[in-house]
Amino acid sequence: MSGLDAIYYGRPGRRYITFCGTAIIPPIFVTTRKSLNLFFQTKGIVEINGRNILDYDYGKLYKEISYISQDELFLNETVEDYLRIISHSDITDESISLLRERMRLNPDINQITDNGDTLSGGEKKKMLLLKCLLQYPNASVIILDEIDAGLDGETKELLRCLEKELLSDSSKIVIKISHIDTSHDGYNKIIQLRDRVECE
Questions:
Q1: Which range, of 44-48, 110-114, 147-151, 172-176, averages the lowest pLDDT?
Q2: pLDDT tens digit string along 116-154?
């Protein structure tokens, strides 16, 4: 699966609802959460590119979706090992060092403890940006879930540059969920929800 062109969902006997696009589409929480084992389907049909999601290999589908959440639970590992685990790769120390410099991660942070609770808010967000940098080249869908909340000026600029890089790749589906009224330049579909009602 090199990319997702359409996602369908519906119930038997009812009309299917289709979201189509080659780059950016509205949030499809049912599909993404299902593939990440955060959602359990009890009835109805969920399809990706016309194929029932139950027929997919979850291990492979998981790698197709890069889900970056502000509520990330960090693993108690060295930073290098953590990044290798979440990127499913044997990335070299040199490559990790370059990425750390790019995201301006404090060089004194080498070990993650207490599942990241000892990290400052800014350093946690930089770790999330590192995760995104490592996962997105192999992913078809990138979901940025509230990671722009509570950012300092430096980290906000790092996120803006990363978003620009993601949105320049038309083969990717980029979904951003945010409660903050910030610039959405580059996104071709913006859905605003007020009191659970869609307002465009």
A1: 44-48
A2: 999 988 899 999 999 999 988 888 888 888 888 888 889
148-154 long-range contacts, Cβ below 8 Å, gap at least 24?
148/176, 148/178, 148/180, 148/182, 149/70, 149/178, 149/179, 149/180, 150/121, 150/125, 151/122, 151/125, 152/122, 154/104, 154/122
In whole angstroms, what is the distance from residue 27 CA to residue 47 CA? 15
Distance set, CA 1 to CA 49, 77, 141 (Å): 9, 31, 11
Mapped onto helix, strand or coil, the DSSP state of residue 46 is strand
**Per-residue pLDDT tens over the stretch 79-92:** 999 999 988 888 89
- State which amino acid sits at residue 91: I
Please name each of the domains of the chain with its CATH number: 6-199 (3.40.50.300)
Which residue, among 165, 188, 193, has the nearest Cα to 178 in the 3D structure? 193
